[in-house]
Amino acid sequence: MLYIFHLLSHLLYSLFSLQCPRSPTTPPSYPLAVRNPYLSAWLPGDRVQHLPSASPQFWTGQELTWSVIVRVDGQAYSLMGVDEHGDVQLPAAVVQHADFTATQSTFRLSTGRLSWTLAFLSPVSPANHLRQSLPFSYLTVTVHGSANEIQIYTDIDGRWTGRAGDSDRALHYNDRDALAVYSLFLKNRDNLTYAEDSDMALWGEAVLAARSSAGSTVSFASGPVTAVRTQFVAGGRLTDTDLPWAGDEGVVGLAHDLGAVKGSRSVTFAVGYVREKAINYLGEAYTGYYRARYPSTAEAVAFFLDDYDEARSEAKRLDEQLARKATAAAGSKYAEILALSTRQAYGGIDLTIPEATRDTNDVLAFIKELSSDGNINTVDVIMPAFPIYYVLDPEYIRLLLEPVLRYLAAGRWRHPYVIHDLGAHYPNATGHDDQNAEPMPVEESGNLLILVLAHARATGDPHWAWQYTDLLRRYADYLVANGLNIPFQLSSNDAAGPLANETNLAIKAAVGLRAFGTLFGEEKYSRIASQYARSLFDHGLATDPSHSHFVLQYPHKPASWKIPYNLYPDVLLGLHTFPPDAYRMTRDFFSSSSSSSSSSSSSSAVRGPYGVPLDHRQDWAKSDWNMWLAATFGPGDAQTQFVDDLWSFMTNGKHSWPFSDRYLARGRRAGLPVLCRARPTVGGHFAILAWDGPGSLSHKEL
């Protein structure tokens, strides 16, 4: 009889879940616990219909065990992550619905007469440094209906600590003041400080926690996955014992016993990854901001669970206001793009203070260049992402640039241009005293000058920038000498290779010089910026002969083109380096369905099914640059086209990576991502919304 019950359950699950409705749409991957580069768990979109047996993944694609099992009047069901071919075979809940907002991914399921909600909340609260810095995420399980006995269980496995297949793990259980906390870590982690394996941290600890309450009691167990889950399935509680560890087959589990339920009841778990030494900044350990108030993991996770109601309320306000404002700015598709981008944009950042002093007046933010070489505080990662900071909390521009500027001001980087990054690999922000950082001289110098002006404009406070006046002038002088006659060098899009006299770099140099001149009141630099702009546009140095578009490279490249996304900060910051005709020309060219004679091949299309490629040589596009260009155009058909293109890529069902910012816009494999996933550069998607003004979704409104 039990076998028949299981079979019928599986058939019903297959029938209904294949048609599971999604709202607002189906993303390539749902963010589950996305808080920093090492707490980044996702559920591929093509696994949702199989949620009861589906495993989440780390952002790079490594499988993670994270299960949810419920027990109703003695009968257990799988809601998430129980392999249907494993030793513990359970009837699967039926997946009814899946949706996501900027801060939360939610899945609704049913088991007979009861329905269930799994809500994965990763707070986005940049102005609240305490809340934003906590390296935990919420899982709330809600039951709707009535039953005599309800129990809810979740577990995670050793792969959350990195090094799959490594059985050399240890765990610690702490039960105090009704708080149950499991910490799971590698035994030799003290020898692995600041070390990674496949982008996973090796020196911290994975955390699973829950709190007992008047309406529920929490039990715990660890050991082989089959043994631990069998305890729960058989009796509805765990045995409060730790069995011998079992390598990748080992789990730590917690279970809530709710007793009788009538109506709706919820329980909340916390999952996280903690590093006491979070960042190595020039040889000094920096730790999470939260440790100034909560120095131990138990204290921090206790506060995190206690903060749930306020964090959820703030998240709901952010979700609603972002959806409303984004829809008003560029339509419902744009709102969906921003909803999927938000957690990812902040999920590449650690917010820190010095470990030795815990001084909250010395806050620094560090960002990882995910999916490429793992550099830390890459200036041309901060640059494309900056629209989300501009909208949500402009102070993050300063927090991310300050570590770089301190290093540059110390004179340890001796080149006359801005450094590319602050360290070859996260979390080691140790600089490049060997002078061998990836060289992007005009790119990074222009970026820095533009970003410091953006911060001053957005906050109304130029004093931070002013303390670096002499340093910044040095980089402005580099652009004076090299911004129009540009030596052979890379731009931000290094995969496209280096060029001399690349038009888009020259545009950046001109805008950067105008930014410096405007901020510091030095007319000389603004005048040179205008001269550059006149040469590039008015005199046609960087346009085709018919003055229909900017070319990729000048002079003598009339058949080429590239997205001139560096026009965006000129417009956003009201610098007027280039005249309105330059923007109209660009809008008309890229809103056309093809470039006809302007392309490198006279019949080649500029726009593909999923947007406009980076330049005439490529099939791949960058989502951030497409949105920058769309924002440059302002409201209208051209902007709508770019938004529709990106939304089409996001929802095409051809891939299951966390939102990729680099993908094939045209060609035989159009619609597939290329190399990049989970990058914080999707903050650039906020470029259109930035027109609402700096801080337009700040904590003051929430």
Automatic annotation (TrEMBL):
It comes from the Eukaryota. Residues 331-689 form the Glutaminase A central domain. The keyword Ribosomal protein does not apply. It holds the Pfam family DUF4964. Residues 103-324 form the Glutaminase A N-terminal domain. The keyword Lipid metabolism does not apply. Keywords: Coiled coil, Signal. Residues 27-84 form the DUF4964 domain. This is Glutaminase. It comes from Penicilliopsis zonata CBS 506.65.
